[in-house]
Amino acid sequence: MAHFARLDENNMVIDVIVVNNNELLVNGVESEQKGIDFCRSVYGSNTNWAQTSYNSSFRGFYAYPGCFFSKEKNTFYGMRPYPSWNLNPDTLYWTPPVPHPSSKVEERDHYFWNEEKGNWEKHKLIHEVNSETE
């Protein structure tokens, strides 16, 4: 089965549908364009589509409603996590206005982004809270 993401005018994914592989065949070879033509025949000729990979073998990752498609990079990228974060045009990752305070991977989960304050805050772990009360 093939999967196709329907895109709005801003290339945001509206939904993802499953299309039988037989609808993609041209002389026995799968064609994305044939799949797009099929999707347009069902959902309307003015709809926009991009094929996505269920196992993330191409175009970044499996598309989901709310994520975006970059035609220039030919890949899907995630939703903006916070209004203050900006999209890095080279990596297509959202970056915070203030860098993360820790470069150690094991410490990254100990912080969370506070959008209201515009900075990272250390998250107290359960054992830290319990040790304070003992």
Report on the structure:
The structure is a single chain. This protein has 134 residues and is α+β, with helices and mostly antiparallel strands. The chain folds into two domains: 2-79, no CATH class; 95-133, no CATH class. The chain is built from three helices and eleven strands. The strands form five sheets. It has a three-stranded antiparallel sheet, covered by helices on one side. Strands 3-4 form a two-stranded antiparallel ribbon. Strands 6-7 form a two-stranded antiparallel sheet. Strand 10 and strand 11 (119-122) form a beta hairpin. The termini are far apart.
Would you kindly provide a brief summary of this structure?
The protein is α+β, with helices and mostly antiparallel strands and 134 residues long. The mean pLDDT is 88.
